[in-house]
Batch of 2 targets.
Target 1
Amino acid sequence: MTHSSPALTQLLSHFTHAWHNNTFVKISLGNYQGELPNLKNLYGKRLNLKAGTRLSFTYRYKTRDEVKNYTFEEAVALINSLLVDGFQIATIQTTTNDFIFDYLPKGKTRLRTTPPTTKDPPTGAHDRTKQRSIAANGKSYLHHLGVTDANGNVLKDAQDKFKQINHFIELLRVELNALPPLDITRVVDMGSGKGYLTFALYDYLTNELSKSANVKGIEFRQELVDLCNNIAKQSDFKGLHFEAGKIEDSDCNDVNVVIALHACDTATDDALAKGIKAEAALIVAAPCCHKQIRRAIEKSKPPTAIDFITRHGIYLEREAEMITDSLRVLILEYFGYKCKAVEFIADAHTHKNVMLIAQKTKAERKPEVLEKINAAKAFFGIEQHYLEKLMRMQNCQL
Ligand SMILES: C[S@@+](CC[C@H](N)C(=O)[O-])C[C@H]1O[C@@H](n2cnc3c(N)ncnc32)[C@H](O)[C@@H]1O
C-alpha cells in the first residue's frame, strides 16, 4: 500500500473546489494496476437525484460496466484510495482547467494543469431525463390543449401526444434551421385540427429559433378554429392564427412552408399541390388514408408479378399506401423538390406513421422522373394520381 502524496492532495483540493463551485465536468481514472479483476477504467460525473447531488461512477470492466453513485464525501475518499492503490492516472475536467495526476517511476507523483477541454458546465441531469425541443413547463398552450397540468407536468394520458409534438419538431429541426430567414415568414398548417403541432411549430420558430414567423392553421371545423384562436390569444402568440375553411379553397400563393399532418386522404394532395404551386421552400406531409389509389388498383386489378401479395386486403392497403406516397414523392421531385420519407411516430401509436419532407431546390423539371411516374402508373393500373390532376388543374403541366 502506497501513501497519499502532495500531488494527490492538490488534485483532491481542485476537485473539492470545482465540485462546490459547479465547475466540475468529469473525472476519469485509468491504467489500473490494483487487485480487482478485469477493471480497466473509472469515469465519474455529477448527477442530480431527488436524494441530492451525487458523483456517479461507471466502473468499466473488460466485458461489462457497473454504475455506482456516491455522496461528495464518499467520492473524495474513494478517489483518494483508488489513486493510492490501483489507478495510475487521473484526469479531472473542470470548466476552468483540466488537472492531470499521474505516477512517475519510483512511485513519484505529479500534477499538471492544462487549459480546459470544455468550458460548458455539465447539466447534471439524469441520463434518462431526455432534453426535449419543446419543454413541458412554462408553456400555457400545452396546458390549455390538455397536454400538461397547470404546473407543467405532462398528463398521464397525454404522454404520447407530448412525445409526438417533440418528435415532430426534432424531425424538422435541421430543415427549419437551414431555411433562410425570409423563407419562414409564412407558414401554413393545412388541416390543423386541435393545433397541437401548429402551436409547437410556432413556439419553436419564435422562441427557440427567434424567427418572426407568421403561422396560419387552416381547418374546416369552426369549433377547433375558435378554440385554437382563443389559446393563441391567451398565449400571446401574436403571429399565430387559425382560419375556418377548406384546404382546397385556401389562398396560399405566397406561403413558404406548408405542413399537412394526417389531413384525410386526398386533402394531403390538396396541401401538396398548394405548396408546389407556391414554390414553398419546405413541404411536410404525414399522409393519412390512401383511398384514391387503392380504389384505382382494385378497379383495374392489373395482373402483375406481385398480385399474389395484393390479393390479401391488408397487403393491398399497405401497397396502396406505399404507391400513393411514392408517387407523391416522384411528383414533388419532378417539380424540383428533394424529398425524404421518414418514420413520424412509432407503429404502436398509429400505422399512419410516415412523414414526407420536401425541400425546394433549384433543379429543373426532370423528364426521366416523369417516365418513372408513367411506368409506375401503367404497372399498377392507375389512370392518374390525384396530385397529378390537381397540378394539371393549376396549369402546372406534368
Ligand atoms: C386527423 S386530423 C389531424 C389534425 C392535426 N394536423 C394533427 O396532426 O394533429 C385532420 C384534420 O384535418 C381537417 N381536414 C381534413 N380535410 C380538410 C380539408 N379539406 N380542409 C380543411 N380541413 C380539413 C379535419 O377536420 C381534421 O381536423
Target 2
Amino acid sequence: MRFRVEPMRIEHIPVVAEIERRSFTQPWPSNAYRKEIQTNRTAHYFVARRVDDELDQQPSPEPGQTVSDGRAPHAGAEENGSDHGILGKLSRLFRGPAEGSPPLEAELLSIAGFAGLWLMTDEAHITTIAVDPIYRGRGIGELLLLGLIDRAKQIGARWLTLEVRMSNRVAQRLYQKYTFKEMGIRRRYYSDNGEDAQVMWTDPIDSERFREALRQHREVLARKLGHHD
Ligand SMILES: CC(C)(COP(=O)(O)OP(=O)(O)OC[C@H]1O[C@@H](n2cnc3c(N)ncnc32)[C@H](O)[C@@H]1OP(=O)(O)O)[C@@H](O)C(=O)NCCC(=O)NCCS
C-alpha cells in the first residue's frame, strides 16, 4: 500500500473533519479548515492519500479498537454502535452514480490522515496532525510529519515547534524521533480537561543532528512504506 502527501483542498474537508472527530476530544469545526485553506496565508495543510488500487480492500477497524493516543473515542464514532467509519459516512455523502467511481469520490476514500503548520517568521508551528485510527501504526503519521518538515524547509523555517498533551506519549515519541524536545509547559492549555501542554522544539533545521535524523528516518520509512524512489 503506497501513500502520498499532497496539499489539502476544500473538497477534502468532509473527510478531514471526520478524521478530526475520530482523533481529537476537542475537534475543530470544518469551517476552521476552510478558513485555514482559503484565507490564512501563513497556513500549509496536507493530506496523506493512498495511491494504489486497493480502495476496495480498505482495512476494517478491529473490534473494540481504541484511539491510540488514549483519547476517548469521539461521540460520532459511538453514535452508530457498530462503527463503520469514514467509508459508511462517505457512502451516504456520495450516494449517486451507480456505475464507476467518480474520481473525487475515489480520492476522498483514499485519505488516511492530514497535518498542517503555520509559518511565523522563521518558526514552523505545527497546528495539527492526525491519522485515521484504522490506518495508525503504519508510518503515515511519520510521512505527514516529513511532509511538514519538507514544507517548513522550503518556506524558510529554521525550527519546528508544537504543543502536545502531556498524556499523548504516542505523538511525543513520533516528535522525539525528529529531535523535538520539551522546552516548556503551558499550564491548563486544554480546556476540556485542564491538561497541560508540552511545548516542543526541534534542533535547528540546518543543524547536522536534525539533518541526520531526517536522513535516517526517511530511509527507514521509505522501506517500511514500500516507497523505493
Ligand atoms: C500521533 C499520530 C498522528 C501518529 O500517527 P501513526 O500513523 O499512528 O504513527 P506512525 O505509524 O507513523 O508512527 C511513527 C512513530 O510514532 C510513534 N508511535 C506510533 N504509534 C505508537 C504507539 N502505539 N506507541 C508508542 N509510539 C508510537 C513511534 O515513535 C513511531 O515510530 P516507530 O515506528 O519508529 O516506533 C496518531 O496516533 C494520531 O492521529 N493520534 C491522534 C491525534 C493526535 O494525537 N495528534 C497529535 C496531536 S499533538
